[in-house]
Amino acid sequence: MDKNYAQYLLGKTKEDYNLIAEEFSGKRREPWPELKFLFDDYLASGDKVLDLGCGNGRFFEFCMNKNVDYLGIDPSEKLIEIAKTRYPQAKFQVGDAMQLPFPDNSFDKVYSIAVFHHIPSSESRSMFLEEARRVLKPNGLLILTVWKFSQPKMRFLLLKYTLQKLLGLSKLDFGDVLDPWGKTNVKRYYHWFSKKELAKPIEEVGLKVKKIGFAKSKNKKRQNIYLVAEK
Fold this sequence. Notes:
By secondary structure, this protein is of the alpha/beta class. The protein has helices spanning about 5-20, 20-25, 35-40, 75-85, 120-135, 150-165, 195-205; strands at about 50, 70-75, 90-95, 105-115, 135-145, 175-180, 185-190, 210-215, 225-230. The protein has one domain (about 5-150, about 190-230): Rossmann fold (3-Layer(aba) Sandwich), CATH 3.40.50.150.
């Protein structure tokens, strides 16, 4: 992907979430229960935890009673405002995942739930992962999830944009889609990952993949790939 277009998409994603912040938070009030095990199984008392791309802060609920030092960061000012209102006992700040405002070796765990699929281009994804690795302590864990395109709508979009790419009508990479959101019809950028494609860039930045698998809601309509990697 052209570097300038990737930068445009990164800026667009930030502004998209500012535009849909209220509606998004209304539909994402609770943390996804099928991901609770990622917090129950990997958090330890006393951990310093970074929630990278925390949105409205809903996954703080899985950290509340675990005696951890939690910090949520997100590029969307509107979502951070909502997070601070919902969880005044937690720490939240606006920040750029590509230039994290923290020293090296700051966190025991970095969580990034449903964020990495919003990062366009392999170059930008490498920058995202290198920053996550930099702020992790030695032997710290990166725990992230991305969407698994299981819904018919997402499969249709993937086919649509693949055909456009083959015909030379799209600046997007193969595997990229623009998905309309709710009443606003804002088209959010996503990249579709297989498990193999997800693991590759993580290993390339020097993280060791410890576990990778699928997490599904009870009705199986919502599916994510999860990955746990060690520094």
